[in-house]
Design goal:
431 residues, disordered N terminus
Length: 431
C-alpha cells in the first residue's frame, strides 16, 4: 500500500514543468534514492528545525502564563475572552503566515528565514514596552505571530525534503523542540515575573535575548535539498485532491479544540485554589508531557500509518478534554495537565506530517504545508475566544470542556472515517 495519498486530479492548468517534475513516491518499506533518510546534513536540518520550533511554537505554548499574568495585572479590567484574543491572534498568525512562508521556501530556499527571525525578536522587545490592550494585540498578537510563522514555515518545510520513510520521527523531533521551549519559556517567565524585582519589561526582554541566541544557532541549519520551484507561487490544484482538502477540515477541528486548554489551564488551576506561582507552572508541565507525546506517536506513525496516528491524537485528546469538567483540586489539575500534554502533543506533529505527505514532489512540500496550515489556523483563532466567552457564562469551565472536547473528537473522527477513504486507504488499514 502506498504511503502517499492517491487522490490525483488531472487538470489542464498544470504547467509543463509541474508535469515533468511529477515523481512517484516510494512505496511502503522502500527508501527512495531521492531521500537521504539520514546523515549529518539531514539530521542537522531536523535539529535546526527543533531550535526554530523552540523559539516560535514553544514561545506560543507558554501563552497560558501571559494570559494569567495579564488578567491579574496590565489588563485586569479586560475580560478573559478579550485577553485571549491576543494569544489567539498569535496562534492564528503563526500558522496562517505559513501560507506565504511555505511557498517562499519552495522558491528561494533557506535564506528567506533570516529577515522574519530578526523581526520576531524585535516584536518581543516591543511587547516588553506595551501597556495598553491594543498595543499587545499589535505587537504580540499580530506582528509577533506573523513573524513567527514566516520563521517557522521554512524550518518545517526543510525537514521532510530529507526524509520519507523516517519522516514521522524526523518531524516529530523538530516539533518536540516546541515542547522543550514550552517548558523553558514558562519557567523562565514565571521566575522572572514572580521571584524577581525586574518587572514585566525586563522579564520579557530576557526572553527576547534567549530567543535571539537560539535562532542564531538554528537558522543556518535550515537549507533546502532540492532546486527551487519556478512555477506558480500557490498550488491551487491541491484543493482538488479530496484527501488533502478533507484533511484540512479535520485538522481545523482538532486545532480548534486543542488550543483551548492550552490557554485556560493556568486560570482554571487558580479557580481550583492553586497559587498563581503553581498555576503558572502548569504550562511547563503540559509541554514537558507533550515531549514524549510528540516523539512516541511520531515513531509509531512511520510503522502504523501517519493518518492513523493523527486520528488517534484527535480522538484521545477530545475524550480527555471532555473529562476536564470533572477535574478538581491541585493534584487532579496537575495529573490532567500532564495527560493532556501527552495526548495532544501528537496533533501538531501529526498534522504537519500528513500535510507534507500530500505533496507529490519535495519542491511542493512547503506550499502544501503552508496552504493547509493557513486554513487550519482559523480553528486556533476561533477556539480560545469562544472558550473565553463560554467561561464567563453560568456553566463556566464545564462549557469550555464540552466545546473543546467535542471539536477535537470530531476532528479525529473525520480523519479516521473520511480522510482515510478519500486518500485511498481502508479505515482500518495502516495508512
Amino acid at each position: 500500500m502506498s504511503n502517499q495519498p492517491v487522490a490525483e486530479v488531472a487538470e489542464s492548468t498544470q504547467t509543463s514543468e509541474e508535469k515533468r517534475d511529477e515523481p512517484t513516491q516510494p512505496k511502503e518499506g522502500e527508501t527512495s534514492p531521492d531521500y537521504p533518510e539520514g546523515g549529518f546534513k539531514a539530521w542537522s536540518v531536523a535539529l535546526g528545525n527543533a531550535g526554530v520550533m523552540f523559539c516560535t511554537l514553544g514561545y506560543i505554548n507558554s501563552w497560558g502564563v501571559y494570559q494569567a499574568y495579564y488578567e491579574a495585572n496590565q489588563l485586569r479590567n479586560s475580560t478573559a475572552s478579550a485577553i485571549s484574543w491576543i494569544g489567539s491572534l498569535q496562534s492564528f498568525s503563526i500558522f496562517s503566515a505559513a501560507l506565504v512562508g511555505g511557498p517562499l521556501f519552495d522558491r528561494y530556499g533557506g535564506k528567506i528565514i533570516y529577515p522574519p527571525a530578526l523581526a520576531f525578536v524585535f516584536t518581543i522587545f516591543m511587547t516588553s514596552l506595551c501597556k495598553e490592550y491594543y498595543q499587545f494585540i499589535l505587537a504580540q498578537g499580530i506582528l509577533g505571530g506573523v513573524t513567527q510563522g514566516l520563521t517557522m514555515a521554512p524550518a518545517m518545510a526543510a525537514t521532510p525534503q530529507y526524509f520519507f520513510k523516517r519522516r514521522g520521527v524526523a518531524m516529530g523531533l523538530g516539533v518536540a523542540g516546541a515542547s522543550i521551549g514550552g517548558v523553558i519559556h514558562p519557567i523562565v517567565l514565571n521566575q522572572l515575573l514572580t521571584q524577581t524585582d525586574l518587572g514585566f519589561g525586563w522579564s520579557v526582554r530576557i526572553e527576547a535575548f534567549l530567543t535571539l541566541a537560539i535562532l542564531l544557532i538554528s537558522c543556518p541549519a535550515i537549507q533546502a535539498r532540492v532546486p527551487p520551484r519556478k512555477s506558480s507561487f500557490f498550488l491551487l490544484r491541491a484543493f482538488k485532491e479530496a484527501g488533502y482538502t478533507s484533511l484540512i477540515v479535520g485538522s481545523f477541528f482538532t486545532f480548534m479544540g486543542m488550543f483551548c486548554p492550552l490557554f485556560y489551564l493556568p486560570s482554571y488551576g487558580i479557580s481550583q485554589g492553586m497559587t498563581p506561582t503553581l498555576a503558572f507552572y502548569l504550562s511547563a508541565i503540559l509541554n514537558a508531557a507533550s515531549f514524549p507525546g510528540r516523539i512516541v506517536p511520531a515513531i509509531l506513525s512511520d510503522k502504523f500509518g501517519k493518518l492513523n496516528a493523527f486520528a488517534a491524537a484527535g480522538i484521545t485528546t477530545g475524550l480527555l478534554t471532555l473529562c476536564w469538567q470533572f477535574v478538581k483540586g491541585n493534584v487532579g489539575v496537575i495529573v490532567f495537565t500532564a495527560l493532556f500534554g501527552f495526548f495532544s502533543g501528537a496533533i501538531i506533529s501529526g498534522g504537519t506530517v500528513t500535510l507534507a505527505n500530500c505533496a507529490k514532489h519535495p519542491k511542493d512540500i512547503g506550499t502544501y504545508m503552508g496552504m493547509g496550515m493557513a486554513w487550519t489556523s482559523v480553528g486556533s483563532l476561533i477556539g480560545p475566544p469562544v472558550s473565553g466567552a463560554l467561561k464567563d457564562t453560568d456553566l463556566g469551565y464545564k462549557a469550555v470542556a464540552m466545546f473543546a472536547g467535542t471539536a477535537s473528537l470530531l476532528g479525529g473522527l473525520l480523519v479516521l472515517l473520511v480522510v482515510k477513504p478519500l486518500s485511498g486507504f481502508k479505515i482500518l488499514s495502516l495508512g
